[in-house]
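User: Please fill in residues for this 391-position structure.
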C-alpha cells in the first residue's frame, strides 16, 4: 500500500505490537511520541514516520535486521498502535524506554544499510501534525549495516534528491499576467509578463528533462483570469502548482526573491499589499468577476484542509532553501510569507514565487539576463526534485 498525500492512510495487513520495557525510570520528559506509521515510496522504498510533540534529538543504529531510532528526553506512548502499511520492510515496531531515552525499534524482513542523509528528513509542524522524523530506506546488506549513525536534529538542510522520479508527478507552471496585463514594469521598460514567461518555458524544459510531467498555464502572450489559471492545475490533476512573478516596490533599493503560500490572513502588511496587487489583475476584465468569486469560494472550501496547506508550506520552505543555497538574493524578511492570493485558491498544493524586483535597476537587468534566468530555473528544479510528494 502506498501512502500518498491525497489518500487517507488505512491500516491493513500487518499488525504490530508496542512493548514498553519495565521498570520505567521516572523522569520529566519534555517530548512525547504521537504517532508512528509506515508506507511505501516510489522506487520500492520503505518509509518510517515518527511524529513527536517537540523537535526530536535522535540517533539511528542498525543491529541485525533492525532499525533503531533513539529519541532523547522523550517519553513512550504505550497506548499507541502504529499504522502499518503492507509491503514494507518493517514487520513490527516496539518501544523501549530507558531512563529519559525512548527507542523505536523496527524489526525488518531484510537488513538495510545506513540510511543516507538524503533519506532523512525532519519536518516542522503543520496543521494537525507535530514534528515528523521521516526515514526512507531500501533493503541492502554490506559493511555499513552494523554501523551506527548519529544525526543532529538541528540539521535541517538535506541533500536534494536528483534521481528521476519513479512516476511522473505533474507540475503546472503559471507565468503570471500576460496579454493586456503586463504586470509590473521596470524603469528600463522590462515587463513582468515577458520575464516570467521566459522563465516558465525554461523551467518546463528542465523539469520535463528530469522526469516530470509539466504544463504551462500560458505559452504565449495571453491574458488569463486567475480562476482559469487555478482551474488548469485542477484539470491536470497537478501534484504542484507554481505561479511565477516579478515584484515591484516603492523603494528602488528593495531587491530579492520572495515566496508565498495561500492563507486567508496575511503574514504581514507587505504580503497583503502584494496579494491585493496580484489579485487586481482580474479587474482588468470585470466581466465574469462575480462568478470568479464563487469559484474561489468553492475551491477554498477544499483548500482549507490542513494537508494541502501544509504541503504548500513544505514546498515553499524547500524552495527558499534552494534559492539561498544558489546564492540568489533574498528580500529581507521571513523565508516564506502567506497571503490570500487568488491564483493559489485550489485543491492543488502550490506557491507563488516572486523572482526578484523589476523596480530595482540592477535586478531588472538580472531578470532579463538568460544566465540569471537559468540560475533561477536550476534552483526551482532542485526544489521540486527534493520535495516529498508523498508522506
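Assistant: Residues filled in for all 391 positions:
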Amino acid at each position: 500500500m502506498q501512502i500518498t498525500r491525497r489518500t487517507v492512510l488505512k491500516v491493513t495487513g500487518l499488525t504490530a505490537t508496542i512493548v514498553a520495557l519495565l521498570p520505567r525510570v521516572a523522569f520529566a520528559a519534555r517530548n512525547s511520541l504521537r504517532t508512528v506509521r509506515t508506507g511505501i515510496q516510489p522506487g520500492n522504498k520503505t518509509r518510517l514516520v515518527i511524529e513527536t510533540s517537540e523537535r526530536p534529538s535522535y540517533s539511528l543504529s542498525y543491529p541485525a535486521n533492525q532499525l533503531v531510532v533513539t529519541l532523547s528526553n522523550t517519553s513512550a506512548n504505550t497506548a499507541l498502535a502504529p499504522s502499518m502499511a503492507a509491503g514494507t520492510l518493517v514487520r513490527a515496531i516496539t518501544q523501549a524506554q530507558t531512563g529519559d531515552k525512548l527507542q523505536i525499534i523496527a524489526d525488518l524482513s531484510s537488513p538495510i544499510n545506513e540510511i543516507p542523509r538524503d533519506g532523512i528528513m525532519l519536518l516542522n509542524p503543520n496543521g494537525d501534525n507535530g514534528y515528523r522524523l521521516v526515514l526512507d530506506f531500501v533493503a541492502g546488506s554490506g559493511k555499513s549495516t552494523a554501523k551506527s549513525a548519529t544525526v543532529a536534529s538541528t540539521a535541517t538542510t538535506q541533500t536534494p534528491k536528483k534521481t528521476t522520479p519513479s512516476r511522473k508527478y505533474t507540475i503546472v507552471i503559471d507565468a503570471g499576467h500576460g496579454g493586456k496585463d503586463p504586470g509590473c514594469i521596470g524603469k528600463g521598460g522590462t515587463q513582468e509578463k515577458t520575464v516570467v514567461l521566459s522563465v516558465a518555458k525554461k523551467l518546463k524544459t528542465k523539469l520535463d528533462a528530469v522526469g516530470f510531467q509539466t504544463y504551462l498555464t500560458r505559452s504565449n502572450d495571453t491574458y488569463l483570469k486567475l480562476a482559469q489559471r487555478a482551474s488548469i492545475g485542477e484539470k491536470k490533476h497537478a501534484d504542484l502548482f507554481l505561479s511565477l512573478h516579478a515584484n515591484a516596490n516603492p523603494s528602488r533599493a528593495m531587491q530579492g526573491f520572495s515566496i508565498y503560500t495561500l492563507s486567508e490572513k496575511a503574514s504581514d502588511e507587505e504580503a497583503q499589499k502584494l496579494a491585493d496587487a496580484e489579485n487586481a489583475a482580474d479587474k482588468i476584465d470585470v466581466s465574469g468577476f462575480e462568478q470568479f468569486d464563487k469559484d474561489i469560494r468553492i475551491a477554498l472550501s477544499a483548500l482549507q484542509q490542513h494537508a494541502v496547506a501544509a504541503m504548500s508550506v513544505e514546498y515553499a520552505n524547500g524552495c527558499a532553501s534552494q534559492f539561498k543555497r544558489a546564492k540568489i538574493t533574498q528580500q529581507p524578511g521571513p523565508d516564506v510569507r502567506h497571503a490570500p492570493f487568488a491564483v493559489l485558491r485550489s485543491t492543488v498544493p502550490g506557491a507563488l514565487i516572486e523572482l526578484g524586483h523589476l523596480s530595482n535597476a540592477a535586478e531588472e537587468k538580472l531578470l532579463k539576463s538568460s544566465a540569471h534566468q537559468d540560475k533561477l530555473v536550476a534552483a526551482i528544479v532542485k526544489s521540486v526534485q527534493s520535495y516529498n510528494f508523498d508522506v
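For context: Residues 174 and 217 are 5 Å apart (CA to CA).
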